[in-house]
Amino acid sequence: MIITDILAQNNERYAEKTAIVERIPALNTQKQITWNQFYKISCRFANSLKKNGIQKGDKVVQLMTNSIEWLPVYFGVLYTGAWAVPLNFRFESDKLLLCTQTAEAKTFIFGEEFIQRIEAVKPELDKVVSLWLFSGSADACPQWACPIQEFISENIGGENPNGEESIDKKSWDTPPEVDLAMEDEAALYFTSGTTGTPKAVLLTHKNLSHACYLENNHHGQTHEDIFLCIPPLYHTGAKMHWMGSFLVGGKCVLLNGVKPKWIIEAISDEACTIAWLLVPWAHDILIAIENKEIDLSDYKLTQWRLMHAGAQPVPPSLIENWKKYFPGQAYDTNYGLTESTGPGCVHLGMENADRTGPIGLPGQGWEAKIVDKQGNHLFANESGELIIRGPGVMKEYYKNPEATKKTIQNGWLHTGDIARSDKEGFIWLVDRKKDMIIYGGENIYPVEIENFFLNHDKIKDIAVIGVPDERLGEIPAAIISVKPGNMMGEKEIMDFQAALPRYKQLKQIFFGDVPRNPTGKIEKPKLRRMYAADKRKDINKLLK
């Protein structure tokens, strides 16, 4: 079933049931819409776009922070047959320009917080974009754009600028007639760019539809489940996890804010049963509980049946600590990429939650294997590149045939991640291939060191990077964030790492914040630029 048909189905079955709740704790505000309202907004927006010349195959940029309008706008674009192009709301002007030019987007939808970034490159954007739509308050809309609500109301029943017969008001609440097939292109997602320039990942309706059934198969969502969504919707991770609930018309709670108390309050107040957390948020919740900032007995949490985490390697120590406070709760982790239509190509499974460490087995409909540089299948406990094959593999890197050919070979998607499998077939993620440190000829995988140090009760977060060294090529260095209320010195780190093999021990230590992108991934290129300078303090003397 095409994903837009699922929305129509939800409207038929659950028209007056709540579809989306938006909570903004900082403003103490809350909004909600029903499935019928969701459906009508999407249909009206789609018809408005179509009336203004947007056709199948056109591209529509969506630059919005999470809001109650986000998903109805997204589905409105899909109903036209155009490609939805959600952009990372942290992209600066240059990347916004690059992505829009790559997509050749005719329409650009944006929120108030992006006006200055857009205006910095608008003369260039205007060479591509012909329709500017504003998703914020009409009072804040710049003169060169039109508020979405006004755009819709002006088009309903009005004159058609193309001279065609106007769409009557009754038919306005049904989708425009567009011939859509499963193999048709649906969305263009840009990678986060943590390892360089963002790539444009082209996904089909088949990719999106499979994500719905995959997620529902893995986590068994029913109509009664309530899903808490915190990560940004421009990212495939958050949206594809939601799609398991979308398939059965389940309620979604959009939470704007990541403070531990806000998360726990939302789960309690809205009776959420499923929450997907990024690793930093789960860490912060545990710290808040340990520091008595959160008393779990103050909240209604017995209905919270599943916490799952992902978007980066999940430290085993985190899950072990989590289970101390939430012993009756199911846990799961999913591995995926934008190129695999988000999470689930490798899936631990709630039935395997006692296996802390591995990312799991191939998900529904997926195959996975670990290969060496020549593509040979490796045996258990041998580290190599993880490659995957299944119905979620992207169509291509748009306008980048060379990268597509390198990444998709004989139907197998080469992930760029180093992994190994154990004797039972469970896959363990070792690290990103590009993050591997070569120290005097030895391969060091930063995640292994990071997981080791996260067992220290004073360390909140850590990032291990390679710092250039004339003699050894690279040396392992770490940026360490200490938990609030704690003090640490270099000697304490040195004493703790004595249990590591000598070649894996840190040679440089810096105390500071560990920057992460909106999906929780450590921004290692930024850290390399910040900490790889020759001026940094060398602590090799402490190791001698």
SSE layout:
Elements (H helix, E strand, L loop, with lengths): L2 H12 L3 E7 L4 E6 H17 L7 E5 L6 H11 L2 E4 L6 H11 L3 E4 L4 H5 L2 H4 L5 E4 L11 E2 H8 L29 E6 L9 E5 H15 L6 E4 L6 H11 L4 E5 L4 H10 L4 E5 H12 L15 E5 L5 H10 L4 E8 L4 E6 L13 E2 L4 E5 L12 E6 L6 E2 L3 H7 E2 L2 E10 L5 E6 L4 E3 L2 E3 L1 H8 L5 E11 L3 E10 L7 H7 L11 E4 L12 H8 L8 H4 L1
Parallel strand pairs: 1-11, 3-4, 3-5, 5-6, 6-7, 10-11, 10-12, 12-13, 13-14, 26-27
Antiparallel strand pairs: 1-2, 8-9, 9-19, 14-15, 15-16, 17-18, 18-21, 20-21, 21-22, 23-24, 25-26
Helix pairs in contact: 1-2, 2-3, 2-7, 8-9, 10-11, 11-12
Tags for this entry?
GMP Synthetase, Chain A, domain 3, 3 domains, disordered C terminus, globular, alpha/beta, Rossmann fold, single chain, 544 residues, 5-stranded parallel sheet
Descriptive account of the structure:
The chain has 544 residues and is α/β, with parallel strands linked by helices. It folds into three domains: 35-203, Rossmann fold (3-Layer(aba) Sandwich); 258-432, ANL, N-terminal domain (Rossmann fold, 3-Layer(aba) Sandwich), CATH 3.40.50; 442-543, GMP Synthetase, Chain A, domain 3 (2-Layer Sandwich). The chain is 29% helix and 26% strand. The protein has a nine-stranded mixed sheet, sandwiched between helices. The chain has a five-stranded parallel sheet with strand order 4-3-5-6-7. Strands 17, 18, 20, 21 and 22 form a five-stranded antiparallel sheet that branches. Helix 1 (3-14) crosses helix 2, helix 2 (35-51) packs across helix 7 and helix 10 crosses helix 11 (279-290). Residues 534-544 have low confidence and may be disordered.
